Known about the structure:
By secondary structure, this protein is an all-alpha fold. Helix content is 73%, strand content 0%. The termini are far apart.
Amino acid sequence: MAAEAHAPTASEYIVHHLQHLQTIKQEKIVDFSVINVDSVIISFVVGAISLFVLWLAARKAHAGVPGRFQAAVEMLVEMVDTQAKANIHNAESRKFIAPLALTVFVWIFMMNAMDMLPVDLLPVVWAQIYGAAGHDAAHAYLRVVPTADLSTTLGLSTAVLILCLIYSVKIKGLGGWAHELVSAPFGMPKNPLLAVPMALVNFTMQVIEYLAKTVSHGMRLFGNMYAGELVFMLIALMGGAAAMSLSGVLLPVGHVIAGTLWAIFHILVITLQAFIFMMLTLIYLGQAHEAH
């Protein structure tokens, strides 16, 4: 006799929503052969939307009195340009870095904003599609916030690291950058017997600095968005408990109040996290232009 279907427990609900749609089932904690398909697709979709919005603003821009949309985009562009000038003193480099910073801010904001959708909206739609295709809908995994995926945020921070290395070589020259790797931050003594060990110490410190900046850059965004995603799941569980419990008559009220308050606060969080990631990108690229 087949077992009767039962509603998932709170832990089962959260575990299900934390599973990625992947190319193959991940067996190890770190497995580079696994691709989180949901993060990739949603990142590209919201990235395309971001580019379309910026293109639309540029296309409709005019010298007359701006409308609300144009004014908002102009304020955003001016803010990013001001921060770029404050951190990147090379005017030629700003021609690329300033638009890059604008793209980073808008793209990450849009990815973060996916957290504002109802927790079960897209996963339920995907489960219906998955089930209609003849598969087990209970295994239709989908996570809709790309920045709550560590592979996404570390991918972004690694791209920033690569740009920092490129600009370090471009601005200082390969020889100048190589000399900096072995002479900073403690300097190079004139005594040849001390020069080699000090060069090794300096090089080790430089590698640690690059790794620490890259990991913390990605982990900061991931940690905040992952925590926000969990809070929304817990609030959704409050609504589920209200639906299943006749005695919990106040739970629906608490669910609405808690969800509304957290959503309002989360608007600040998703904006602030996008701004912080953009600012750190500018700061790190600015440091690549400076000599120790």
